[in-house]
User: What shape does this take?
Amino acid sequence: MRDCVEVDISGPVAQLEGLLARATLSPKDAARCARLAEALRRPARLCLLGPDPALLHWLLAGLIGEAPVAAGQMPPALEVSHGEAPRTVATLGDGSTLARPGLPQPDMLARAPVFLAVEAPVALLRRMSVLAVCLDVDPAQHVPALAWAARRSEIALWCTASFGPADARIWAAAPDRLHNHAVLVERAPAPTPPRLPAGAEFVARFAAGPAPDDGAAAPRALVAALQERLLADMDEARAADLDATRLFLHRLGSAVPAPAAAVAPRAAPAADAAPSAGMRALVSEPLLYLTRRARALAQALAWPDEGGDWAAEVLDGCCETAEGLRDRAADWPEDDPAATALRQAIEEMGDTALLLQIEGGAEAAETAAALMGQMRWELEQALARSPAPDLEPGVGR
Assistant: This one.
């Protein structure tokens, strides 16, 4: 199997972050810059889709080594991503969430979560996260489920016993984003597979073989071939993102920070001076606010109403969040260079979010979400660089 070697993208990412921190880009360039930075920082996102939870569980376990839940406990949606220690966040049917350290436990699974987000220290997950979505028996639920999955993935694996007319109808109606790079995995390939419309074809097909006995692992040859193909595709996508970044940086020319100078986490224009101890108090609550707003928006979009305008909901949520951050930053001290630079970044991203809301559409929504992710990173970096408050005399000494 191809080694999980990570390409060093720290230089280009630092240059993109340096550009955003300078707050001198046009709104269109700032949006493009944020999108490129997010694409480089984030692992590739793989989605397993299909009507058979047992097959999805079998492939998930084969790809990452061990599934975080038993085969009979698969929720409608399960996402596994990299983390330094196991952690689980469960979304329940009423929209509430439970977060706990460790893998999913029986008491959490007994509450019938509709979505489990699990972090695990698995090496392959540094390269890709894996989302498994089991399609409901009710065809009316297919469209919103596929639309939701499309927003959380770049590579799709359609998993089925045999790709027949029913599969073809569901797949043909899937969003174009899922069709962009899709692989078919079936237990027994159909002798004459149904014809798919142009643009919905699979880039590769794999035969998984007959259903295994209970507890049997996926064949090593299948797992190795799938991993080889997926990692090769991810390498190509990463190379394309790097090429796009280099072209973008080349177009901006002298405005781009030098690589050596850009390696620092954030080189804001007025932040050459170290943040004051007071920055910790200024930034903590806005960071909590932004984190809560992002969580609330994710919950609202977890299972959207059929026919609902998810892009408009994202754009509205991002603009409301930007206004909330502006209100919080309005009273920050004018004589603190780091606070001034961060407030300027909030203002620029808020303006860009408003322009994206006017533009509308799926691409604008994705860019707005990426800008909010960039703003969260800015606040986290400001908090991390702020000196801890001095201990009172006699405390901890």
User: Anything to note?
Assistant: The chain has two domains: 10-40+245-385, 47-218. Residues 47-218 form one domain. The longest strand covers residues 44-50. Residues 260-273, 390-397 have pLDDT under 50 and may be disordered.
